[in-house]
Here is the input.
Amino acid sequence: MMITNAISRFYFIQMRYPHLHHVLSFALILATIIIPLRISALETQIGTSTVVHIKVVKKIVEKRMQKVIALTFDDGPYGTPTWQILDILKKEGVHATFFCTGNNILKYPTIARRIVADGNEIGNHTYTHPRYLGSSSPEVLRNELSLADHVIVSTTGIHTKLFRPPYGILSSAMRAELTKEGYTIVLWNIDPVDWDHKHSSSKQIERRILTHMQPVTIVVMHDGRDTHIGYPRDNTIRALPRVIRRLKKEGYSFVTISELSSTTLSKFQ
Here is the structure.
C-alpha cells in the first residue's frame, strides 16, 4: 500500500510539474536500485534473523503504546470481601496485585493462598500496618518487613520483593533501607478513596478512577481497612466489575505490578 501511494504521488507531481520529469525519473531509478542493495547488505550483516528482529521490535513498540492498568488492593486478606474481589477478578479474567499485612494473612491463610493460586500477585504491606513507620527507626522497618515476609513465604511459598508503605508514607530513610533490602517500592497515581466508606459510594469510586486514567495507571483500592475489623467493603466490590468492563472497552490491558518495567515504576515513587 505504501509503495502504491508513493508511485501515485510520483505521477501526480510529474503531471503537475513537467519540468521536474527528468529529476524525478532519475530519483525513482536510484531508489529502485539503492533500496534493494541496502536491504541486501542489511540481511548480509544480520542474517536470516532480520525478520525476527523486526517482529520483536514491533512487539516492543506495540506494547509500549498499549494502555495498561495495574489494579492493586491493600490491607488484606480480609475474609469475605477479599474472597468476593477474587471472584470478580476471576470472572473478568484479569489479575491484580494484593499488598497484604502479615497479621491478616495469619487470620486468613486460605485466602492468601487463593490470591496466588488464581494467578494474582502478592506484595509486602508490613506486618502490623503501623501508622508512623516513616518516623520509626530502621530496626522497626526491618522487623515489619521480615515478619511479614516470613508469614507470606510460610503461607504461600512466595518470597516477594514488592513493598507498599502503609498510608503511602515514605521517608528518605525508609527508601534507603528498602533499597538496601532489595525491595521495589510501589505507590500509585489513582486513589479513588474507597477506604473512606462513608464518603465514597461505588459510583464515586468508579468516577474517580475513570476520569483520571492515564496510559499507564496504578490504582490503589482496599480489600481491608488498616487494622479495622469488619469494615464494610461493599462499595469497592460493587464498583470493581463496572470499572473493569469499562476499561476493557477503552482498550486497557490489565497487568500485575511485576509486569510493569522498573523504569515505569520509578515514575510512581
Q: What stands out?
A: Strands lie at 67-74, 97-100, 121-124, 162-163, 184-185, 216-222, 252-254. DSSP finds eleven helices and seven strands in the chain.
